[in-house]
Amino acid sequence: MAEGRDLKKEIDSIAKESKKIGMGAGIKFLKDYVLNQDGSELQARAAAIAGENVLYAASQHGFKAAVVPFRALAYARGNNGDFTWCFDGVTMRQYIAFHLGRSTIYGLAITEAENKPAPPEGVRPQGAHAHGNFQEETIFLSDNVTVVSGQGRGADFIPNLSTGQVYNFGDMSSVPVVDGSGIQHQLSNLNGYSTVDFTLKGHIGQLIKTEEGGEADLGIQNPFVQKRGWGSIHSQIYRKNSGVLYAGVRMEGDELVFKDGSIVEEIPTSVQANIYTVKTDQVTEQIPFSPLDGNTQVIRILPWPANLTAVFDTMAGQWLSEDNIGRIRAKVTVIDEHGNEASTVVNGGDVVVLNQSGSELPEKFSGGLSGRIVGYRVENQSQDNLELMFLTMIPIYSDSD
Prior knowledge:
The protein has helices at 7-20, 27-35, 40-49, 54-59, 70-73, 242-247, 308-311, 322-327; strands spanning 65-68, 75-77, 83-85, 93-97, 109-115, 136-140, 145-151, 158-167, 172-175, 177-178, 181-182, 185-188, 195-200, 219-221, 224-227, 231-237, 250-252, 255-257, 263-264, 270-278, 287-288, 296-301, 329-336, 341-347, 351-355, 366-367, 373-380, 388-396. It is of the alpha+beta class and 401 residues long. The strands form seven sheets. The protein has a seven-stranded antiparallel sheet with strand order 1-25-22-28-20-16-15. A six-stranded antiparallel sheet has the order 4-5-13-6-9-14, with no helix packed on it. A hairpin with a 5-residue loop joins strand 18 (255-257) and strand 19. Helix 1 (7-20) packs antiparallel against helix 2 and helix 1 crosses helix 3.
């Protein structure tokens, strides 16, 4: 943990801010667990989550579209309480916000992970753990990923293969809560190659891991898949009421207002994750601008190719490196209501932020916009036949799901 930072103050700050946004549930558990531990990982997570959301910082320039580079997003937890770049091979994880709140805990966020394969001796890449009383929902960006639940703590964990599930690209796992506690579970890459996934974190959910937890069947939800000539879209809808939680809607008199001040007529009931894969030298159709919190939409260019195992020997090391993500390139073109276009080229891991309330464009964009944003296109300009992946989160406004 950084010198001069006080862990109790960090946790108290999280609790105070979380109460403001209606996240009373789970706060006592968070404080009781973290403050009674002497774990450097918990200290690092507490300090990181209390930090400023870099997307918020980018939005303060008043840009209608902006790019946040991966290097600014990849400052992750490390060993012994120190922070390290994920490029250094210590964490291989990033915590990404999909909102412009000042702190990451103010809205929907995910943790991305590159999970190493199990070595020949069969050691799992992830220790058995639970997440307190938070339900975990993970979407996998690889095939043949096995997750098992079981009994026991830490090194004494005994997996129950009958409660395990095998997940493929686009599948979403559900790690349930039983009797007020998350169940023990463990990811096992016994297929001989690395796998990639991202997990919905929410305001404070799943920030910590514990060895306490029960046993139950793991859930699986298959994606809705749309095939296109240029690639595909894999969609997952998170549990109902997730939209209410993450959009940050509040009442002001008789009006519904998002955190960013925009007025809405209806509260979103759920959130939908859309995973786009784009073939080499192909471009998507125009994708509608679908802000999650009123005025803003985040386009996450993922730092891995969709065909990772076909183009990279994951047994030889991790994919995440500055050289590798530089091979992933995407041209993002933003379109306004008058048909004007503005484009920029970004690398793997970068985030493009579209802000309806902005007025200017940074120099990185060519072209110009004079009206409201209506959509965007993404072209795969990656090297070496890498298949592009990007992720968006959009609101769902009905119970028909």
